[in-house]
Amino acid sequence: MRATAKIFWILGAFFLAVTIAYGLLTGTFDPLGVETVGFPVMVALTGLAFMIGMAMSLAVRKNDLGPSEDMYGEVEADAGVQGSFSPYSWAPLWAAVGAGLCFLGVAAGWWIFAFGVIFAIYGILLWVLEFSRGQHAH
């Protein structure tokens, strides 16, 4: 995790430099000023890289070193349970359909966006609550 944190801190610094240069160049050469789509997206990308770097740095402080941090570690050292996944879950499909319809709705029509929000909310709620009901209830 320590290497992952370093990679995202470096990526965040790189994206910050590129974002500043992009904002200055588009502000200088574009007749309408700073470009209204690319610049905010690059600011969000920079924030995302720094956010992941910070989360990884905090996780390194809290947790012990993992097998990936051992210079002489073997592949078998990382064997075992990697997480809890529900088998045969339809929730990711509905969430992805909702996200796809939301993106399509921004480009094609806001009425499609509304259907995307409905599908996305259904998929996310189903995904969050799937361990609270039925066969997988605790």
Structural class: mainly alpha
Number of strands: 0
% residues in beta strands: under 5%
- Residue stretches low in confidence (pLDDT < 50, at least 5 long) are none
The description of the largest β-sheet is:
none
Q: What is the number of domains?
A: 2
* Outline type: flat
CA-atom Rg in angstroms: 21 Å
Helix content: 55-70%
Mean pLDDT: 88
Oligomer: single chain
Distance between the termini: 31 Å
| N-to-C series of helices and strands | HHHH
Count every helix, treating DSSP H or I runs of 4 or more residues as helices: 4
Structure, explained:
By secondary structure, the protein is mainly alpha-helical. It has two domains: 2-66; 91-136. It has helices at residues 2-29, 38-62, 91-108, 110-129. Helix 3 packs antiparallel against helix 4 (110-129). The relative contact order is 0.10. The mean pLDDT is 88.
Give a short synopsis of this structure:
With 138 residues, this protein is an all-alpha fold. It contains four helices and no strands. Its main location: membrane.
Which descriptors would you attach to this protein?
4 helices, mainly alpha, 138 residues, 2 domains, single chain
